[in-house]
Amino acid sequence: MTSPLRTVRVTRYLQPLKQGGSVPALVEADDDGTYVVKLRGAGQGEKVLIAELVAGELARALGLAVPELVFVDLDRAVADAEPDPELCLPLERSAGLNLGLDFLPGSITYDPLVGPHPDAETAARIVLFDAFVANVDRTARNANLLTWQRRTWLIDQGAALYFHHGWGPEDVRAGSADPFEEVRDHVLLARAGDVSAAGDHLARTLEVGTLDRVVDLIPEAWLAVDRAFPDVASHRDAYRTWLRARREAIGLLVETTERARG
């Protein structure tokens, strides 16, 4: 079950996290929390934030570990705390609503060689979920997984939902039947357990109501920037249509994953 995201306001800029392609920033907020903020004014803009939001909340609905996501209100004055002009500009462009992930203190980057590793059932669910949302960025080179409190946490899912870069009203189902051959490179594929059972769990959990509730979380401001759609409502409906169509490909995703595992 998903619920509306909280909105927090940045009170202090701490530091940039330059390893991220979207130039995320570490900030403190008015709830005394610390967050990794994905900036709408960096990289591919709102599309990355939408992918992070949708993938993150769908993963949470499946029972996978995802840091709390919050909407982050960023004042343009926060950019004054960043002396590097290359990093200052994305901050200035990101005034308004952004997306934050709860910072997990003491977490460590998942190492596929030394672990600790998720159990086989969890690994299978992560692998198939990433195939469902077409996330190409969960490889051994860049796992985008953290280990914290004996659990494996999913982060940095902005590369998911690749189809929405350049789509329009005439092709809202584009990529929904993709078998996702890229699953062969998934960092957890060799550790995945029963993929068929993971597929059943995914289909059972991500029913239409859940998909719609997650899509309804996308802020209007993020949808409005894509001028390919006549209005926000049609853009939001496009995500609903794609995700519903993607459910029909779950069996194909299971077959592709099992074949990739050999």
Gyration radius, to the nearest Å?
Answer: 18 Å
Give the number of domains: 2
- Share in helix: 25-40%
Count helical runs.
8
Distance separating the two termini:
34 Å
Largest sheet: 5 strands, mixed, barrel
- The pLDDT mean sits at 93
- Unreliable stretches (pLDDT < 50, length at least 5) are none
Shape by Cα distribution: globular
Write the element-wise H/E pattern from the N-terminal end onward: EEEHEHEEHEEHHHHH
Structural class: alpha+beta
Strand order of the largest sheet: 1-2-3-5-4
* Percent of residues in β-strands: 15-25%
Number of strands: 8
Structure description:
The chain is α+β, with helices and mostly antiparallel strands and 262 residues long. It folds into two domains: 7-102, no CATH class; 108-261, no CATH class. Helices cover 34% and strands 16% of the residues. It has helices spanning 46-61, 85-93, 120-132, 195-205, 208-215, 220-224, 232-247, 250-261; strands at 7-16, 25-29, 34-38, 69-74, 96-102, 108-109, 145-148, 151-154. A five-stranded mixed β-barrel has the order 1-2-3-5-4. It has a three-stranded antiparallel sheet with strand order 6-7-8, with no helix packed on it. The longest helix is centred in the first third of the chain and has 16 residues, at 46-61. It is globular. It starts with 6 loop residues before the first strand and ends with a helix. The mean pLDDT is 93.
Key terms for this structure?
262 residues; alpha+beta; five-stranded mixed beta barrel; three-stranded antiparallel sheet; 8 helices; 8 strands; globular
Summarize the structure.
This protein has helices at 46-61, 85-93, 120-132, 195-205, 208-215, 220-224, 232-247, 250-261; strands spanning 7-16, 25-29, 34-38, 69-74, 96-102, 108-109, 145-148, 151-154.
